[in-house]
Amino acid sequence: MSMWFYLFVLYFCGIWSFSSSRKHLLVTLLSLEFIVLVLYLSVYFYLCGLNYSLFFVVYFLVFSVCEGSLGLSVLVSMIRSHGNDYFRSYSVLQC
C-alpha cells in the first residue's frame, strides 16, 4: 500500500510543478513528462498486481513517446521563430 502512496505523492508533485512553472516551455514539458512517467509506473504496477498481460503498457509507452516528440518539435519551432521559450514574450495575435 505504501507504493501507491508514493506514486500518489509523485503524481501530485508533478501536477504542482506543472501548475507552478509557467515561465518556460521546456520546464512545462518536463513536468508533463514526469506526470506521464508516474502514470506509466502506476499502470504497470496495477497490471502486474492483477496478472494481466502488459500489452497496454507498451501502447501507453508508444503514445507517451509520441507526445514527447511532438512537444519537443513545438519547442524547437518556437525557438527558431521567436528566439526563446518565454511564454510572456509571445503575443496571442501573432502567428
UniProtKB/TrEMBL annotation:
GO terms for molecular function: NADH dehydrogenase (ubiquinone) activity. Keywords: Membrane, Mitochondrion, NAD, Translocase, Transmembrane, Transmembrane helix. The keyword Membrane applies. Its main location: membrane. It is found in: Membrane. It comes from the Eukaryota. Signal peptide: none annotated. The chain crosses the membrane at residues 29-47, 54-79. Belongs to the complex I subunit 4L family. This is NADH-ubiquinone oxidoreductase chain 4L. The lineage of its organism: Eukaryota, Metazoa, Ecdysozoa, Arthropoda, Hexapoda.
